[in-house]
Write a structure and sequence with these properties.
It contains 19 helices and 11 strands. The protein has about 500 residues and is α/β, with parallel strands linked by helices. It folds into 2 domains: about 220 residues, no CATH class; about 150 residues, Glycogen Phosphorylase B (Rossmann fold, 3-Layer(aba) Sandwich), CATH 3.40.50.2000. The chain has a 6-stranded parallel beta sheet, covered by helices on one side. Strand 9, helix 14 and strand 10 form a beta-alpha-beta unit. Helix 3 crosses helix 5. It is globular, with a radius of gyration of 28 Å.
Length: about 500
């Protein structure tokens, strides 16, 4: 009959509507999938809306007032009986075996799993509040005139690492380290004790008593007894901090400013590169980024700049010799100064007007001045024969710094002749490299990819297999065996063999 539709013709509008609906749905999915925010995850979205905070004081203030618990969580510790230690070891061995045999095609490079101890608040939150409530007291100075709180800031690596580890996972940017809640899942154990704050801000005997308490608390944990502390991370970045008891924790991985092979700060066998990790000081000046470097290039009219204490002890005696050799020379600025607020402004101004920055040894082979120069775009000239550098397994310092032996540096006329002979093209190349390298030395919250916190865990990944080797080996080597090798004998072997 005319005008009557067949079933097939009646289905066309329905099919067309369904096709349009599916097409729109597909377009929505494609837009969501390829939009800039998709796949970034919550941490990247957080990163896009939050500028990294690089000031220790500002970051700590925000954390204590807005993020720290009103009443610190109770400490979580376990009495380390033989049964508890054995059970933990069995669980850790079982989990490691499951990871090893579970999927042979699964990549071996997994994020490092870190268990952060929840210690009594006297070792953590109380010390942070102590700093926060007293840092404006500028009359609190060390014997050489440096502000105590500025020194604490320079060595505040323990704060920055802890802050990243305990941050909500949705706000963290680093992907090569994760915090775990169960000890048996951990590769490493982090000890969140603020040793530098306690050393500088507590009365001497009170501080020593707190050190002993921290020592007892940590070494009585099952995980410590299982490994002898070999998989525990101990931040002792100021060479005086934790000094009275740290010999009892020499198997732990120490986070240090340098090795100091002179023996003035660390006893033989306590520190060496196989076990420990060198971390940069926290910069005392603001970052001069690529744009700043470009704008300041024509203003860098000073050949060589130095501002700091001109007389130091131990390895720092080279400073007095350099001052005698360089003072009054054309293009050289050498100033006496400390790390106070006025000193910061003067140092930053001087470094941004200079091509080269002198970086001699301090009381120890390292000096915060090296990292101030790097983030200021001033090429460091390192005169420190015993210096060990942070992250040197990853970074090539020859691209950003010059190295001069102490004996050559004090030869009449040789030092400045060497600097003046460097070709301008090489200077420009090193300055460009400084702009790239500076992010490796800027601690921040949230911690940034390729920042110093990130490089800590990249370096730790290289140590992890060796750490587990020594743990397992120590568990099976029989007592009094001649093959039982302690830190002391390993260090002696390295020294005698010339390594």
């Amino acid at each position: 009959m005319a005008g009557k539709q067949s079933p097939r013709s009646r289905s066309y509008p329905i099919l067309l509507l369904l096709l349009i609906t599916l097409s729109l749905l597909a377009l929505c999915i494609l837009y969501f999938h390829f939009s800039p925010s998709h796949g970034a995850g919550p941490s990247t979205l957080y990163h896009q809306t939050q500028k990294p905070e690089t000031s220790f004081v500002a970051s700590l203030e925000h954390f204590l007032l807005h993020r720290s618990p009103k009443s610190p969580p109770p400490a979580r510790g376990v009495i380390a009986t033989d049964d508890v230690v054995r059970d933990l070891d069995e669980l850790m061995h079982r989990i490691e075996s499951e990871r090893l045999w579970g999927d042979p095609y699964f990549p071996a490079a997994m994020p490092i799993r870190v268990y952060v101890y929840e210690m009594p608040s006297k070792f953590t939150y109380d010390l942070l509040w102590l700093f926060r409530n007293t840092y404006r007291d500028t009359s609190n100075l060390t014997s050489n005139g440096s502000p105590v709180h500025r020194l604490i800031e320079q060595h505040s690596i323990d704060y920055w690492l802890w802050m990243d580890l305990i941050a909500p996972e949705s706000e963290r940017l680093l992907k090569n380290v994760v915090r775990v809640d169960r000890q048996e899942e951990a590769d490493l154990f982090y000890i969140p004790f603020f040793t530098t704050i306690s050393f500088f801000l507590m009365e001497k005997q009170q501080c020593k008593a707190l050190y002993r308490e921290a020592l007892n608390w940590v070494t009585n944990q099952p995980a410590w007894k299982r490994s002898g502390g070999r998989d525990h991370i101990l931040p002792v970045h100021h060479p005086w901090s934790f000094k009275s008891v740290r010999r009892f924790m020499k198997n732990a991985i120490w986070l240090l400013p340098d090795m100091d092979s002179t023996g003035n700060w660390y006893k033989p066998g306590q520190v060496f590169l196989e076990k420990d990790l060198i971390l940069p000081y926290v910069a005392n000046v603001d970052l001069c980024d690529a744009k700043c470097l470009s704008e300041s290039y024509s203003k860098r009219t000073t050949l060589l700049f130095f501002r700091g204490r001109l007389k130091r002890n131990a390895g720092g005696k080279i400073r007095a010799k350099l001052v005698a050799e360089l003072s009054g020379a054309e293009g050289v600025v050498i100033e006496e100064g400390t790390a106070g607020e006025g000193g910061k402004a003067a140092a930053q101004n001087g470094m941004r007007k200079s091509i080269f920055c002198l970086s001699p040894a301090g009381d120890t082979p390292s000096s915060a001045r090296l990292f101030d120069a790097i983030v200021s775009g001033c090429i460091p000239v390192i005169v420190s024969d015993e210096l060990e550098l942070p992250f040197e397994g990853i970074l090539d310092y020859r691209k950003i710094a010059l190295f001069v032996s102490s004996s050559d540096a004090v030869q009449p006329g040789r030092f400045l002749t060497f600097l003046r002979a460097i070709h301008p093209a090489r200077i420009r190349e090193m300055q460009r490299n400084l702009a790239k390298y500076s992010l490796h030395f800027m601690y921040s919250s949230p911690a940034q990819p390729l920042g110093p916190e990130d490089l800590v865990w990249r370096m730790m990944a290289g140590k992890l297999v060796n750490i587990k080797l020594h743990i397992r080996r120590s568990q099976r080597v029989v007592k009094d065996s001649r093959s039982l090798c302690s830190c002391d004998c390993r260090q002696a072997n390295f020294t005698s063999s010339g390594l």
